Amino acid sequence: MDKIRNIDELIKLLYNNIGLLSQLYEHRNTFLYKDALDSVDGNSKKLENLFQYGIIEQSDEHIEISSIHRRYFEDVTQSNVEISGSKMDDFINEAKKLIEVIVTIRDNNITLNDDCGISYIVR
């Protein structure tokens, strides 16, 4: 990751990407890479610059403002991050899938082994 050399460079980088950064801040962790690319008119170099300077991060196909920059923007705007209903639905669905796996393992008396060779029986 490159370092920003001065405040002018930071301001220019943020200003040149104000549309994307505003959308990322609004959507928090639910912005897709392809949507981010669309918001910079297909200019992947703009996204790469933001990645290179640590302004944004990518997780799977999602893009988000890096945690340090997100906290800064929240502090400056005095806003609180709210967990959206759709995010809660995602968490609940993932938990349900994990529970189904555990139940399947338990019902079929499957023994799990960890990296150290220790066996676990799920009851």
Describe this structure in words.
The structure is a single chain. This protein has 123 residues and is α+β, with helices and mostly antiparallel strands. It is 57% helix and 13% strand. The strands form two sheets. It has a three-stranded antiparallel β-sheet with strand order 1-3-2. It has a two-stranded antiparallel sheet with strand order 4-5. Strand 2 (56-59) and strand 3 (62-65) form a beta hairpin.
Summed up:
With 123 residues, the chain is an alpha+beta fold. Helices cover 57% and strands 13% of the residues.
- Cα gyration radius (Å): 20 Å
Q: Could you report the average pLDDT, rounded to the nearest whole number?
A: 79
- Helicity, as a percent range: 55-70%
Strand proportion: 5-15%
Order the strands across the largest sheet as they lie in space. Answer: 1-3-2
Please mark out the parts with pLDDT under 50 across 5 or more consecutive residues, or reply none. Answer: none
Large-scale geometry:
elongated
- Helix and strand content put the structural class at alpha+beta
Distance between the termini: 46 Å
Counted by DSSP, the helix tally is 6
Record the SSE blueprint.
Layout (H helix, E strand, L loop, with lengths): L6 H10 L1 H10 L3 E2 H7 L4 H9 L3 E4 L2 E4 L1 H11 L7 H23 L3 E3 L5 E3 L2
Antiparallel strand pairs: 1-3, 2-3, 4-5
